[in-house]
């Protein structure tokens, strides 16, 4: 199953200027229900976001598409 | 969820900001120097005043902002930050500032003890910086193109400073080394090996991120830094040995830099942003000056009448330093500083007090007006090289004022930060 199929919510932040991608991601994670996943699309690896996610009980999987889009699938680690 | 915002690895605001705030003071000092010395400063690139002026712009404005930017961007672009960033920033900033003051004093008075002071302070400051950044870069796995540009740029800074220090040893102890040859190689490593490589590495990250352009082409990000570094090393050897192939290698280095500038301009034209902001305009001006400078250099090589004109190195210097590097760097400061302030305020608010909108941290109109002053100072500086008696004083005054204006704009951002931090403290105390 592709990341797009797994995600309940997609945040396409490729054409957003900082800090909007970060803010939209936070808002998106707030909306997720238990067990749901969110897909974030960017043109770069968001290293600061990765650390923030891990520090706060989330995990992620990222892969880079042909056109340079970095697809980051994010979900809450089961307690 | 906003409460989760925690940038544990981001350097404290005071680490990069001290570099960004002191940089305009050095450029303003360059303007003041031109205002005081007038046309005599522009008699040739070798006058004491011209050497002091150049180093206030390069080892002052450019080095300070680039060191601050690298400390900030390393964790963002690569995931690896400098250990104890505030301590490193304090030591490096203090030593570089003091060293530059000694250096400028040395050029203006030719006192050997001032050159000795510059040698110790600049050497110490750069050594601490290289060790700290080198350790951070060593943690990064090989493979990323951005990391190559950053690693080679840091090596380029090492070469630049080693050559600079060797000349200082010469000046401080009255030795008779071939300073003219070393100066040319020192200049090329400073502008290309450090300047262009670091700028390109930072641009690969920040241009698509802040200016909403497509990503840089893969072939450029993979090839530019290693090729420029190799060509520069070959050119340096050829130049030092007096080999006839040196001009061809120099032309290839200039062509590499021109390719980067044209590719970046091509991306900026494809920006998804609806209207041009100050940063876009600053970048377009800077890249146009870089392309213009490369073209002027090429014409000077082919047309002896222009190539032998003593004003050509000064004209190229103004075009590349003030028109190219300073424009692009100032454009970036106008994105990076408000963004950092937003980031640290958001973090301080712990998700309960939100940071102000970025556009309220520094108004677009304030940046646009300052940019007009910068463009005017660039025009006057170029005119001053051609007609020193007419334009040297107005150009000095314009450079002084445009950089004080930049300082005021950046200071305003800091005031917003302090005001909002007090507000956060009050709100959090009231909620407790």
Written description of the protein model:
Helix content of chain A is about 30%, strand content about 30%. Chain A is of the alpha+beta class. Chain A has a four-stranded mixed β-sheet. In chain A, β3 (about 60-65) and β4 form a beta hairpin. Chain A is globular and about 35 Å long. In chain A, about 25% of the residues are buried. With about 425 residues, chain B is mainly α. Chain B has helices spanning about 15-35, 50-80, 85-110, 110-140, 145-170, 180-210, 220-240, 245-270, 280-300, 305, 310-350, 360, 365-385, 390-430.
Provide tags for this entry.
heterodimer; A: 79 residues; alpha+beta; 4 strands; B: mainly alpha
Q: What does the secondary structure layout of this molecule look like, with pairings?
A:
The complex is a heterodimer of chains A (79) and B (432).
Chain A: H1 3-6, E1 9-12, H2 20-31, E2 37-42, H3 47-55, E3 58-64, E4 70-76
Parallel strand pairs in A: 1-2
Antiparallel strand pairs in A: 2-4, 3-4
Chain B: H1 14-37, H2 48-78, H3 85-109, H4 112-138, H5 145-172, H6 179-211, H7 218-241, H8 246-269, H9 278-302, H10 304-307, H11 311-348, H12 358-361, H13 364-386, H14 388-431
Structural class determined from secondary elements of chain A: alpha+beta
Structural class of chain B: mainly alpha
Cα-to-Cα separation, first versus last residue of chain B: 19 Å
Radius of gyration of chain A (Å): 12 Å
**DSSP strand content of chain B:** under 5%
Largest β-sheet summary of chain A: 4 strands, mixed
């Amino acid at each position: 199953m592709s990341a797009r199929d797994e995600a309940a919510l997609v945040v396409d932040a490729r054409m957003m200027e900082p800090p909007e991608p970060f803010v939209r991601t936070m808002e998106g994670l707030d909306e997720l229900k238990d067990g749901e996943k969110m897909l974030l699309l960017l043109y770069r690896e968001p290293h600061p976001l990765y650390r923030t996610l891990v520090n706060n009980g989330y995990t992620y999987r990222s892969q880079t598409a042909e056109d340079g889009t970095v697809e980051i699938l994010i979900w809450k680690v089961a307690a | 969820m906003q409460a989760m915002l925690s940038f544990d690895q981001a350097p404290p605001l005071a680490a990069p900001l001290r570099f960004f705030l002191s940089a305009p003071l050095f450029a303003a000092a360059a303007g003041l120097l031109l205002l005081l010395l007038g046309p005599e400063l522009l008699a040739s690139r070798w006058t004491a005043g011209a050497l002091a002026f150049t180093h206030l712009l390069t080892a002052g404005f450019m080095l300070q902002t680039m060191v601050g930017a690298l400390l900030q961007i390393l964790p963002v672009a690569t995931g690896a930050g400098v250990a104890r960033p505030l301590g490193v920033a304090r030591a490096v900033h203090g030593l570089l500032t003091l060293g530059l003051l000694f250096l400028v004093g040395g050029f203006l008075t030719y006192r050997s003890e001032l050159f000795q002071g510059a040698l110790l302070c600049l050497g110490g400051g750069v050594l601490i910086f290289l060790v700290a950044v080198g350790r951070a870069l060593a943690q990064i796995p090989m493979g990323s193109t951005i990391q190559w540009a950053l690693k080679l740029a840091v090596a380029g800074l090492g070469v630049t400073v080693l050559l600079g220090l060797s000349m200082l040893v010469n000046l401080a102890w009255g030795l008779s080394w071939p300073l003219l040859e070393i100066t040319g190689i020192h200049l090329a490593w400073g502008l290309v090996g450090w300047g262009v490589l670091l700028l390109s590495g930072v641009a690969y990250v920040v241009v698509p991120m802040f200016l909403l352009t497509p990503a840089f082409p893969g072939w450029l990000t993979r090839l530019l830094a290693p090729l420029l570094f190799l060509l520069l090393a070959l050119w340096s050897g050829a130049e030092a040995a007096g080999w006839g192939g040196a001009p061809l290698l120099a032309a290839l280095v200039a062509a590499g830099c021109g390719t980067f500038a044209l590719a970046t301009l091509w991306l900026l034209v494809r920006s998804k942003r609806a209207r041009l902001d100050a940063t876009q305009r600053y970048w377009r001006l800077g890249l146009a000056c870089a392309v213009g400078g490369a073209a002027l250099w090429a014409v000077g090589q082919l047309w002896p009448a222009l190539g032998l004109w003593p004003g050509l190195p000064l004209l190229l210097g103004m075009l590349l330093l003030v028109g190219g590097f300073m424009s692009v760097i100032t454009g970036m400061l106008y994105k990076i500083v408000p963004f950092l302030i937003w980031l640290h305020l958001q973090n301080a608010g712990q998700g309960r007090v939100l940071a102000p909108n970025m556009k309220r941290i520094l108004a677009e109109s304030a940046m646009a007006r300052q940019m007009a002053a910068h463009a005017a100072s660039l025009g006057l500086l170029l005119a001053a090289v051609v007609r020193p008696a007419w334009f040297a004083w107005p150009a000095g005054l314009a450079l002084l004022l445009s950089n004080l204006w930049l300082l005021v704009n950046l200071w305003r951002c800091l005031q917003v930060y302090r005001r909002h931090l007090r507000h956060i403290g009050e709100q959090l105390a009231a909620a407790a």
